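Students often ask why we bother encoding 3D structure as a string. The short answer is that it lets us treat folding as translation between two languages. Here is a chain of 275 residues written in the first language.
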Amino acid sequence: MYISPSDIADSAISIGVRKANLSTSAKFLLGILAGAFIAFGAQAANLVTHTMTDSASAKLTAGLIFPAGLIMVIMAGAELFTGNCLMIISLAERRITLAKLLWSWLVVYVGNFAGSLIVAYLVSLSGQWNMTGGLLGGLTIKTAAAKISLSFTEALTLGILCNWLVCLAVWMSFGAKDGVSKAACIFFPIWVFIASGFEHSIANMYYIPAGIIAKFNPLYVSKALGLGASQAGIDSLNVMRMFTRNLIPVTIGNIIGGCIFVGLAYWFVYLRGKK
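And here it is in the second language, the structure alphabet:
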């Protein structure tokens, strides 16, 4: 069973209000969980593709795995910054204040970062990156180095495209009335975003810190070089560049993609001027 887009818009208002009214501690804890869930999807996508040499096949396969992260967020209940861009609908309807919206985004964003870092650190301790003679560790470094090599415009645009799809997945999940339908609504847009190589700020909170940790292992560095990463790119992989070259522009792009191309677009069509 599925409800109409106009009814989804009505539901989105109340969902945004409920999210805004969560306590700060609840927002933060649910943010940690969401960051961890997305990180699980990201690390699994790396694992299943680390021996694949064909780029298109690797992206296609990663896209089959990564959606599990957002499915866990929606089905288990957690707060994800990128999906919460749809709270802009509640703001447009004047059901929440700008201050509440921005505070919710900030708390959840920090929580997402914490959850992603927890998973990255635990994976680094697990020995998983030693798989295939350290090749998985090499891919972890290569992936992170590639993400901080983007120009500001590239990262911004890839962020817009990404969260356009992510928020579409969340929007459609609002309209599904059973678990299988919700999972299907989430799966296909996320598969498209991963296969297309778009940039998701919260996923990158796993990918880039994981690469920074992995670069301290000489074996992983040698494997990354063998996979085509440059020494200069590996050397420049650090916390400062993580923010300036990726997280800041990608986050801005994610906000634009989710708020304008999904939230405000559907608000304008279905809710503007409606009593």
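Translate back mentally: The radius of gyration is 19 Å. Keep this in mind for the problem set.
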